[in-house]
Amino acid sequence: MAYGPRLIQRDLSFDVNRGDIFVIMGGSGCGKSTLLKHMLGLIQPAAGDILYNGKSFTRADPASRDAMRRGWGITYQSGGLFSSMTVGENVTLPMQLYTRYSEAEIRDVVNYKLALVGLAGYQSYYPSEISGGMRKRAALARAIALDPDILFFDEPSAGLDPISSSLLDELIVQLKESIGATVVMVTHELPSIFSIANNSVYLDANSKTMIAYGNPRELRDHSDQPVVRQFLAREASAAAENAQ
Question: Tell me, what CATH number does 160's domain have?
Answer without folding.
Answer: 3.40.50.300
